[in-house]
Amino acid sequence: MKRFSSIVSTVAILIAIACVVPGRTRAQEPPMDSAAQPTPVPDAAPLMLGIHPFPSYGSAPLTAGFILDAPLDADDQIVSYLWNFGDGQVSTRPPNILFHTFKKPGSYIVTVSIATAAGRMGTAMAGVIVAPAAR
Q1: CATH classification at residue 39
Q2: FRET label pair with 50: which of 59, 77, 80, 83, CA 20 to 30 Å apart?
Q3: What's 120's DSSP letter?
Q4: How remote is the C-alpha of 71 from its chain's centroid?
């Protein structure tokens, strides 16, 4: 019961962080080719994105899937993706469903940033909790 209480507390902290963090850290992100990035449109509304992890918690090693919810206009398309898994690993893979294995226990904040051909950009975050491996 104590382990469950600890997991619930960690989830609450991750949710609180995701609600108040205005941006993201770029320290672990690889530089993107400036030619591949669209020019931001000053009056374009930011994209409203969502990441849905499954499962969002479990024992190490934990392979989690992430579904990206990115509603776009019919005439717009995503031209760049940048996933940051919070464990030092990043990906620019374009699928809307992506799997990642967290090898070590810990609490991770996963982010994805996208840009569209119309110059719209957006970032979404989700928390994943990895417990120590069962003995």
Answers
A1: 2.60.40.10
A2: 59
A3: -
A4: 16
Amino acid at 117: A
Residues 6 or more apart from 91 whose CB is under 8 A from it? 81, 82, 83, 85, 98, 100
**Predicted local distance difference test score (pLDDT) of residue 135:** 79
Q: Tens digit of pLDDT for each residue in 60-76?
A: 999 999 999 988 888 88
Question: Residue 110 corresponds to which amino acid?
Answer: V
Element (H, E) at 12: helix 2-20
- Sheet order of strands, 121-131 included: 57-59, 121-131, 106-116, 78-84, 90-91
Cα(66)–Cα(45) distance, rounded to whole angstroms? 24
Select from 67, 69, 127 the least CA-distant residue to 102.
127
What is the CA 38 to chain-centroid distance, rounded?
A: 21
Domain range holding 6? 2-131
Question: Shortest CA distance to 49 belongs to which of 83, 74, 20, 88?
Answer: 83
What is the count of structural domains for the chain?
1
DSSP 77: -
Amino acid in position 126: A
Contacts of 102 (CB under 8 A, 6+ apart): 60, 61, 62, 63, 64, 85, 87, 108, 128, 130
